[in-house]
Amino acid sequence: MIRLAGAIAGLWVLLGLLGLLLPLEPNRVALSAMFTPPLVETGQGLYLLGSDELGRSLLQRLVDGAAISLLVALLSVGISASVGTAIGILAGYRGGWVDRLISRLIEIFLAFPGLLLAIAMAGMLGPGIDNVVIALSLMGWVGYARLARNQVLSLRRRDHVSAAVALGRTPAAVMRLHLLPLLMAPLLIEASYGIAGAVIAEAGLSFLGLGVQPPQASWGSMIREGVRYLLVAPHLVLVPGIALSAVVLSANLLGDALRDRLDVTSRSRR
Prior knowledge:
Elements: H1 2-21, E1 40-42, E2 45-47, H2 58-94, H3 96-110, H4 114-125, H5 129-155, H6 159-166, H7 171-207, H8 219-227, H9 235-262, H10 264-269
Antiparallel strand pairs: 1-2
Helix pairs in contact: 1-2, 1-9, 2-3, 2-5, 2-7, 3-5, 4-5, 5-7, 6-7, 7-8, 7-9, 8-9
């Protein structure tokens, strides 16, 4: 199962890179080939995954949507992890009023459902890929900050940290050189789950019309457009829906495998 999940995730990354690099034509309209079923050849060529209501190739739009989801996931997770980790380490190491202030801010963000907060942010910022990344980053930094803070609270009393302070290391150097490396394992696990959450959140925002705008392809917008023709051409929903479900499931499975591999206590029990 883990190998299958890795293969699906690798295929998603490959399709995303191809969508960014290859000169595809996902928006080319061919009305004579509208609603073509999968694996049917028409005068416009062979449609491996069929075509939509405008005769656009679902395969090319699927690849273009993979590029969008990959780009949004990597950017949003990267920004969230960087900002959240820095804030969490600062709160856990400094303590005092800094910790109390950051903890209250984290609690305020946690009081709102994550997707609802992302919808509100995207609604205020407006549609578009850039605004989706900003909205997901504003939503996602909280988990990394809380994780980093809790880990630092238990690590800052370690002997090597006390020795670094005694030797005159600055607080910035202690946090960067002696605390951050010890946080990498749990942060990587959190990031693996964050990628799955970012993919499904981007698709949800695009489905609601707050993400990628037509005619640009996104798995969420492809599902939204295909719902109207579900009884006539179910492949318009099935193709992006299966792709979205497979990518999210594989990311979660890889996150579980990474957690089992990096968790020292679970390995010692086995």
